[in-house]
Amino acid sequence: MRNVGLIGLGAMGLGMAQSLRRAGHRVHVHDVRMDVTRAFAGDGGVACGSPADVASKCEVVISVVVNAAQTEQVLFGTGGAATVMQRGSVFVMCSTVDPNWSVALEERLAGMGLLYLDAPISGGAAKAASGQMTMMTAGRPEAYEKLGDLLETMAAKVYRLGDRAGNGSKVKIINQLLAGVHIAAAAEAMALGLREGVDPQALFDVITHSAGNSWMFENRMPHVLKADYTPLSAVDIFVKDLGLVLDTARATKFPLPLASTAHQMFMQASAGGHGREDDAAVIKIFPGIRLPG
């Protein structure tokens, strides 16, 4: 049994914490929603009042927050983890961020005597809860050694993509390029079907058994069919993530026409008031259709 810290009990972080707990580790958790923190501890675990509280008890701290700004707060904000982490401890960063920012963070933490793993994640809440998600990791050999088998406890696939930070985040934003384009394309296809008077459930059944199917069509279009836009992954997540994709490509003048179009679609949905809805709500930008429900 090891003392492991995890900060951010959202859709993915909660499942990861549960996987660590099932494996017999003593899991110290913190979330800005203290009721969620206490609920996890009530089922077995340790509730902590701040990232610093987590870091003072654990030599491994896993951060599963939304973006780079929140990660900065976790480490260096009021009650941040970095100032109390013992030298040689490892910080595992699971957010989707600018790869250059991740490289800089590794250097910053190294200057404090801390190890760092660039480790974005993918798979969704269900796979995180069952320990079947994917981790795209990059970091120094010492960081992997310190972690032991903790990564494999949380994920079915742990890819090691380099001995320095950066490549984990690069692969993750490429994954997000595909995910965002596929969701946008799935919404466009369903919207066309609705506009043409095709029964949406029949369309879903046909497409999911035909060559045009995608994982995102099969996963997201049921949200549309049920008129359930509860945000498992919100529209604004893809405003952010596709923005990171485009920023990375722009730096080397690399054209991304499909990613650019998908980004504009999510931007339009967000501007229309749907930013905090499930990302399937991008279908709401299409005019002249009557959505289920």
From TrEMBL:
Residue ranges the record marks as coiled coil: none
Upper classification of the organism: Bacteria, Pseudomonadati, Pseudomonadota, Betaproteobacteria, Burkholderiales
Domain of life: Bacteria
The keyword Cell membrane appears for this protein: no
Matches recorded under Pfam families: NAD_binding_11, NAD_binding_2
Record field: catalytic activity: L-threonate + NAD(+) = 2-dehydro-L-erythronate + NADH + H(+)
Keywords tagged on the record: Carbohydrate metabolism, NAD, NADP, Oxidoreductase
Official protein name in the record: L-threonate dehydrogenase
UniProt record similarity statement: Belongs to the HIBADH-related family. L-threonate dehydrogenase subfamily.
Record flagged with keyword NAD: yes
Ranges for domain 6-phosphogluconate dehydrogenase NADP-binding: 3-162
Domain 3-hydroxyisobutyrate dehydrogenase-like NAD-binding: 166-285
Functional note: Catalyzes oxidation of L-threonate to 2-oxo-tetronate. Can use either NAD(+) or NADP(+) as cosubstrate, with a preference for NAD(+).
EC number of this enzyme: 1.1.1.411
